[in-house]
Specification:
The protein is of the alpha+beta class. 30% of the residues lie in helices and 12% in strands. It contains five helices and three strands. It has a three-stranded antiparallel sheet. Strand 2 and strand 3 form a beta hairpin.
Length: 176
């Protein structure tokens, strides 16, 4: 899904730390004057009561107080995670895909008129083109890596032998 988010012709919106698989949770936090802050805390707990798992008062009290400094501190990113393990691999993947988005002639156009999506089993195949240049973004949502797109009903036009892989999220450098 990261390739779809970063390579398709839409503005990518990332959650804080998503670009390096941050381990810290993101809590809602605020710094309002006490009377407004109390109303916000009460409102969030009341609204959360409609969600499964937060339907009793004890569970609602466990929702972090948006006004508490601890809530803010618990949401702070550990930027060092970008330089090790899965964080480094994810950071590199996002960096490579954003670079491709800028440098590739078709992807850089961000043309929403020249894009077609096809579902083939658990694969989502997105075909983008400009003039004689074509790109194919293939997103696997559950099929084993050995599954062939043609066996899943992918359109014949997208199964041309001329495609060559430019980037695969399954590469070892990205943790695949």
């Amino acid at each position: 899904w990261a390739a779809l988010l970063l390579l398709l012709p839409y503005t990518p919106m990332l959650f804080m730390g998503q670009e390096f698989a941050a381990s810290s949770r993101f809590y809602y936090f605020a710094d309002h004057r006490p009377d407004l802050g109390r109303l916000i805390t009460e409102g969030r707990r009341r609204d959360s009561a409609r969600l499964a798992g937060f339907d009793d008062e004890r569970q609602q009290r466990e929702i972090p107080d948006p006004q508490a400094e601890e809530t803010f501190l618990a949401s702070k990113l550990n930027l060092g995670e970008r330089h090790e393990g899965i964080g480094q691999q994810t950071w590199l993947l996002y960096h490579e895909m954003l670079g491709l988005r800028r440098s590739d002639a078709v992807l850089a156009r961000q043309d929403r008129q020249r894009i077609r999506a096809h579902v083939a089993g658990d694969l989502l195949l997105v075909h983008l083109w400009h003039r004689r240049e074509h790109r194919l973004v293939a997103a696997n949502f559950g099929v084993g890596v050995d599954a062939a797109p043609e066996a899943l009903g992918a359109p014949a036009a997208l199964l041309q032998p001329r495609w060559c892989a430019v980037l695969s999220t399954d590469e070892r450098r990205f943790g695949g």
